[in-house]
Design brief:
- The complex is a heterodimer of chains A (532) and B (345).
- Chain A contains 23 helices and four strands.
- Chain A is mainly alpha-helical and 532 residues long.
- In chain A, the strands form two sheets. A two-stranded parallel sheet of chain A has the order 1-2. Chain A has a two-stranded antiparallel ribbon with strand order 3-4.
- In chain A, a hairpin with a 2-residue loop joins strand 3 and strand 4.
- Chain A is globular.
- The relative contact order of chain A is 0.14.
- In chain B, the strands form four sheets. In chain B, strands 7-8-9-3-10-11 form a six-stranded mixed beta sheet, sandwiched between helices.
- Classes of the chains: A mainly alpha (532), B alpha+beta (345).
Chain lengths: 532, 345
Amino acid sequence: MASRVQRTPAPPRAFWLPAFLVVGLVLLPVVGLYLAYLTPNPLVPTPPLSMERVWPLFGRTLALSAVVSVSTLTLGTWLAWVEVRTDYRGRALFASLCVLPLATPSYLLAAIVREEMAPAGIFGRVLGLEGQFTGFWPAVLVLTLSCTPYVHLLVAAALRRCPLAEEEAARSLGARGWRLLQVVWLPRLRPTWAFALVLVGLYVMSDFGAVAVLNCEVLTWELYKVRGGRDAVVLGVGLMLAVIPLLVGIRLLHGRTASEATVASPRVFRRTPLRGTAVIFTWIVHCLFVGLAVLLPVTILVGWLFDGLSTQHEFAGLWAPALDTLVYAFVGSVVVLAAGFAPAWLVARSKARGIRLLEHGVYLVSALPGILVAVGIFRLVLGLKRSVPIQWGDESAWTLLEAGGIFLIIAYVMRFVSQAYAALSPAIQRLDIRQEESARTLGARRWRRFWSITAPALAPGAFAAMTLLFLSIAKELPITLTLLPLGHRPLSYQVWTAQQEGSVPDVGAAGLILLVFALMLQVLLSRWRRHV
Amino acid sequence: MSNLNPVKVDGLTHAYGETPVFADVSLTVAAGEIVAVLGSSGSGKSTLLRAVAGFVAPQQGRIVIDGREVYADGVEHVRAEDRRVGMMFQDYALFPHYSVADNIAFGIHRQPDRDARVRELLAWVGLEGLADRMPAALSGGQQQRVALARALAPRPVVLLLDEPFANLDGPLRTSIGEDVRRALRANQTAALLVTHDRSEALGLADRVAILGPRVQSAPATLLQFDAPEAVYNRPVSAGAARLTGPVTLVSGVGKGESAETALGMIPLHHAKEGALTVAIRPEAAGFEPAEAGPGKLVGRRYLGGRYSLTVRQGDVDVVVDWASDAAPALGSEGRLAILRPCPAF
């Protein structure tokens, strides 16, 4: 049978539908909020919709983002500089340890800070603090610790990319100190800083766990509190309006930082050795950072666990939550990885005009704050139950889907598909098309080529992506909290409910398992990243 | 091999969108013959090879492999998987997760004599002890031999070679080139070799197809298709002359057996009349030092045992071979001598 052939290996047509479905998921929360607007919950009073309630929350959210951005940029840049451009005893160890805070869930850190800075807590007693340690500044502290590794990694990568030749040329022309910084480093770092600022801003605006535990009145926490009421519509819209400029900024700036990478210099910098007080200062800052973000949480959680054991506290069961975490994180990571495959393949292989829009769409879907996705889908399910009643036997089909965790998994796909995409995309782009062509000339058809040539080449990237997704889903809070089927309690849920109930030993037990597990996966991911 | 010409390419024309690549390319490859496609970078020679393999669909033309029309005027009749072509790439494209033996067996995995064939090919390429090695553990030359064995394992009708020796150094390049030639002759396998290296094309091929450069919006065309000696000694155009070796081109007027040029009368290969261009190869010219001669030595490059001299006579710079370990000093005066008849077009 004669057929027209393509100039280049075109992606299978069957990939377009799942790719568009993934991008189309962005509409779900919008539709959910729209349904909430159309059909207010009859059980909850329906105040008139007004943006007046949004503005103070909006202002506080912006202020929190701005303060955390500045603090993380300062600390992250300094950590990156001493890692890349200086040499001192323990540098490699500290460089590895500084990435570990990525494993600590912000809500767990927040719970520890809140408890231990309270008047009865260790630090509260030592510092003589009175009243609850909650609100804006505690949230700044916790989010700074959580976000600094992102800035650190971005700036360190940018510093490594800076062409050594430029610095040498400037030095040979007499530049030093401030002039060297102004001429060589600032132009190179500015796009990365801008990107990091927007990224941290988006992270802070989207964060739910830390601000909820620390009762910092910002958009995400308030949205969760009113998720069943009509105010959810205005707060959801307000949150969406707040993050959209940041999303646009991220996409624009990401392109610029990526293009910087094309001028990478393979030459290694000569590091400046640190001596005396400089080394001691560097050690102190690193120890404080790693201690506060990793060691302290582990120690405190162990302490809470032993307190519970010594007081013969009746612990909530841990096997079922651990198993729930494993099951949801595994199923979620497999589905999210599969969802990211089609868009990644299409963007890498399709010559269609505007194919990059598909990539922007994937990032847009995942950039929506978790709480917005959660509340949007929660309201969508409520709306569908009321507006589109479909029965399956005696039960509503929507209830069955909800109980089966389908909406939870869809929300995980929305939240994390960009992680799958970001990991798969370079792996697909690195595939050697000539190997596929060799296989074709040797008679291998599509499936044999895929399983014998493509799949083994993609496997390491896919496995790393799955580990990252597993870690992200295991730590995830707002979606899990809002859409989890009844009767299930993964560890993140257990930590949340235990800290809400003030059961510190239960937070210790569940949190410790979650944290140790997350740290192990983070170490694994960091090792892989080094080998990429 | 039943077909006299296992590969026939007829009037092949291709463009990438609005950008033309090549036009009206026709050539044949006989059983056991190596045809080299020689062209400058961007002339579309790799695209031509990929069209024969089935990875690129030209807009017009016909490709026949082993008597079967595999492609004609935009319609593919036989897919790449079924064309019975073997392909060797510049960077070998070995499957990194397969051992040497598994790589060679890839195209014959269903054949009952697979293991024997793999052993036979391993012995032939001199890699008997390396069957279980992974490609990353091999040197460039060994990887090249594995790629050759893998491509030949299914006994293809034609072997397509896309700059396959470009990553090898001089002596290895020569020895592997000879191995390939020996293998193809022994199996009576046709081969189409793409290269921009004229010494490789002239040294390895039985016939050379010269693909002219693409100029702005004009596609590349086949300038000449002939034996290596013919394309070198009797180029049919300035482009073909330049692509096949160093040459000095001089305008003149044909006067039968010789041409009148700025350098004086130059004997021609074939009698010609009227305006023409004469191609002078370095070995067809000589330099005779003489006081107050019309020529002057303006360039002098030592090539090991011989020199390449540039002699300026009138307004023309002529490159001359000087087959001696001692050459006249720069600035020496003398006379240019044409030692043998030159081609003209």
